[in-house]
Amino acid sequence: MNKKYVAIKKALEVSKKCYDAVKANIKVGVSEQDLYNVVANTIKKYGAGHCDEFIGDFVCGERTGDIGGDPSDKKMKMGDLFILDLSIKYDGYWSDTCRTFFLGEPTDEQRKAYDAIIRAQYVGKLVARTGVKACEIKKVMEDFLTSQGFGGLMPHHAGHSVGELPFQEPVFKMDCDTPISKGDVITLEPGLYFKDKWGMRIENNYIVHEDYLEDIFIYSKKIEDFIIKGDK
Length: 232
Description:
By secondary structure, the protein is of the alpha+beta class. It has helices at 3-25, 32-46, 108-127, 134-147; strands spanning 51-60, 81-90, 93-94, 97-103, 160-162, 168-171, 185-188, 191-194, 198-201, 204-208, 213-215, 227-228. The longest helix is centred in the first third of the chain and has 23 residues, at 3-25. The mean pLDDT is 97.
C-alpha cells in the first residue's frame, strides 16, 4: 500500500485514542491546557517512535466562536463547547481531524447547527472527486449551510489537502480553481461560529478516487457520543 496512506491511517488511529482520552477527561474545571496535556501524553503513549509532531486547536467556551487557537488556562464550565482540531505527523505524513464536545446538554440551536455541519460534510463528500475544483467544493457546502439558515457563518475554507504538510493546496475556498487529483488525501471541515458565544466544527480525512471519496477516519460523529453529562 502507498506509504502515505499507511502513515496517515496510522496517525488517524492515534487520533482516535486522543479523542477517547479527551472524552474521558473533560469535566467542569478542566482547562484547555489540561486537555492539551492529555492529548500530548496520549500521542506519546500510542505513537512513540513514529509521531514526532502534532498541532491543533484547543478552545472552549466563547473561544470556540473564534474558530480556534492555542490552549490557554481557560477552564471549562457547564454549557461550554470544546473544539479539538488535531493534526498528527506519523512517519513523515500528516493527518487532520476535528471533533466538538459538549459539556452538558446542547441547546436546540446547537443541535440544529451540528446537524447542519454533518450534512454539509456529506454534501461535500458527494461532490468531491478527481477533477472537481476546490472552489466548487467550498460553494456547495456554503450553499447547503445557507439553505439551513446558517449563511455567512463559516468564514474559513471547507477543507484542504494533507500529506507531507498538515495544510497543502488545493484549499477549498472560493478563489481557488485548482482541482483535486486522484490519490490526494483531503479534509472536509465544515463549521459554524457565533462570535463571543460558541462555535463547532467536524473534520474527516478522505482519499480521492476517480469517482468517489473514501472516508479513512472511521470515528463517530453522532452528537450524543460527544455530550459529557454532569461534572463527572
